[in-house]
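Question thread 4412

I'm putting together a teaching handout and wanted feedback from people who do this every day. The idea is simple: show students a protein as raw sequence, then show them the structure tokens that encode its fold, then repeat with a second protein so they can compare. Below is the first pair exactly as I plan to print it.
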Amino acid sequence: MAQRAGGYRIVVLSILILAYTFNFLDRQILGILAGPIKQELGLTDSQLGLMGGLAFALFYTGLGIPIAWLADRWSRTWIMTGALALWSGFTALCGLAGGFWQLFLCRMGVGVGEAGGVAPAYSLISDYFPKEQRARALAAYSFGIPVGSALGILFGGLIAHAIDWRAAFVAVGLAGVALAPIFRLVVKEPPRGGMDSASAAQAPVVRAPAPASAGGLAVLLAKPAFWLISLGAAASSVCGYGVAFWLPSFFERSLGMSLVDRSVFLGAMTLVGGVAGVWLGGWLGDRLGKAKPAYYLLVPAVAFLIALPCFLLAIQAKSLVLAFVLFLIPTGLNLVWLGPVITAVQHLVPASQRSVASACFLFVNNLIGLGLGTWFFGAVSDALTPRFGAEALRYAIYSGLGFYVVAAALFTLAAQGLRRDWVE
């Protein structure tokens, strides 16, 4: 308990956020570099979409569950250390790619590494923070998404402008490799379930036989709330990942912004709007969810319905100042779901099964959301190019915003039966 008290758990949370920042920095840097990569390697939007989504998602989702199974039985900190070094190393190798398939395979390698970076972290945070603070702690961890995405956009664009896109991959990849040993020295393995009630903190799974785990997984997969939550998050991620990946190209093609200008513009927008949205979701989740768990899902459902018209207005803006202000709102609302929804997933199972539960959720969310999202927008853009030319990407983005309505509907349905599937 002493390990998790006071300032130490804040230090742990801080370095987990830093690792997650590198996770998304390495994941999202491809978006800002899409222009120069497309030009040098002669790629289509569909190919770029496959590299940004499917290439990463294939192994990221497929390996997530077995790695999480291992994390429920072995050291989560060692798993995350190895994962950080692996995905960062493959990010650096992206800078050496000479064609589509080499870059595709390197992006698959990034996905292999990142498969071990998130589900174990969710489990660690749940063992460092009590349940009444969990949504905020998980939301704070999720700061890594907007911060990492913003830094990927900013540093990727600036390094590519100063040198080339290859140097950008190498620089951010090697920085992550250097962080790995520091992560291992700082983060200690906490007792599993020590911050939960006796009913939640079951006997450690470390000594549990495999059939019990299989039974626990079957129980999770039989819960309607799990599927509704996972598919709702996946629907939102189709739009979230897709828009995030293609906005740099949209600002280049439709608004004529240079690489440096759109790096600064989008980096600032992602950082300010994203951090505000993530924290708002965590704060509302803890404040409302402790009285009624359904609010963990109703809060993001409302956020998506507000984000949809805001995105439509922002995409039509002609002034860069107006576009910045309008994009800030949906950028934040797009990430409100992270703290509340991840907290809800943690409470669908006992403490000893949280890594696997998180990995199952991430499998559905990322296979559909990340695997389909970036490719969907790119494929629609290619299909519309003969008719709309450089503006095809604008209409491709319009076509994907309806996924927010699907996400809101699924979260609302899940909220109705969440109490039945809840584990305290």
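The second pair follows. I'd like the answer to focus on this one:
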Amino acid sequence: MIEFNEVDYIVPTETFKIEFSYLSKQGFPFVKEFLLKALYISPFSKFELSSFFGFNQRELAAAIEEPISKGEIAYSDDGKLFLTPLAKSYFSSLDDKPMVEKPQTKTASVSFELAGFNKVKNQHDNWHTGIRLKVNHEIQSLSEQHARAMFTKHFQQLVQNDELAGFKIHDNTLPSLYSVDKVSRKKTIAHRIKRKFEIDLDNNLKPLDLRQQYINDEALAHEISNETDNFRLGNNLDSINSAWDALADMSVSRFVTDSSIDFRSMLSEMAAGSYDKPYQLLLGPLYSKQPLNVIENSLKQLKPLKKNQKAKEITWYGANTRYWGMSEGFNCAKMTFVNYSNKGKSRIYDLKLYLPCDEHPNIESHAGKIWKHKLGNLEFCEGIRNGLFDGNVEVLILEGEFAAVSYHLALPNISPVHIPLGFFTTDQKLIAKITSVVNEFKSDSVSYDKPNLIGKFQA
């Protein structure tokens, strides 16, 4: 399977304080344990027990007083002491220690996502760089009742998975739930689900499968499908063809038709290397693993600037698609670019990120709010109208060093999300060509009062 994209989904999650009681088997004090063990083997007279333990009459009376009062030991007609059925229930075999179940109270902090009410880790994740899933408002309003029911139903499994820490477990015996005393909602947090989109060499998409991660996977899979699989993309090959023409592309266009992608040939070329070509092929958005590794290898080789040299600029032009930037990988890539911008005391480059914005009467403020909602931090960011080639092309350029291009192909008969394919180059002619196309777009406008370059977002 070939991974070509990754999208994060964020499902609202509530953390609950759950107060409950449970039954846990516990042993007995030393003397009582051996007294019960002796009588479990055979009834004994008081004289025999005194001899066995080396007790005088007062010591034996003190030892048997409590178990007699609790109905654990009784006298037979012939005056011998024996175990009652209650005390016999403490034993599971002759070799076992006597154990008794005692109720204990405990408080746990437990988080349930609100789509399928699966128990999830108490993570404090952000709400950005991901597609937010909708949840049933009725379920959300009754979340405390649902949390009580799910906690009760899956208590044993939560204990086995060590998700309710602090239990005293004896001889590998698990506690059992006695009662759920109180459930109170504490706060709402974000739970992130990562979906890797993978495809085989015959263009068959790998179906979503959450069974290994969640007990109630159907509800989550349904919501993810509603936000992705049921959201049909329009074919964008006309715009992509325009990009290929403008860039005189010979890297990716060879592998793409209106209805399929020749992944066999593409992967063969990637495996063979691009020694005879001025580029390397990329698979995925520029912030995904394979493209970022290629870009990072070049960043590592950058040399510190001399004292009088001015820092360069690395410019990143986002794609205007529903799924671009909707992954934690986006933030990881951004931080990678920031981390390599300095070497020692030398500033090598400054990062500038151009975010595509849809048409709107108040485009600066409107787009700023949308991107703030999507990404959170808008540091290093400026707006551009629509994006490169109708927003279907992502570009990264470090002047004079390298350039990377990713064509976000929308082929709805193959995939519900875009299939980003592209190339990376250090060839100066190719870099100059890409830079020229991008600069022409930035200096152009859709009409006399609508320049493509919007600039910094308004607060």
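Top answer:
Good format. For the second protein you could add a caption like this: The first strand starts at residue 2 and ends at 26. The radius of gyration is 34 Å.
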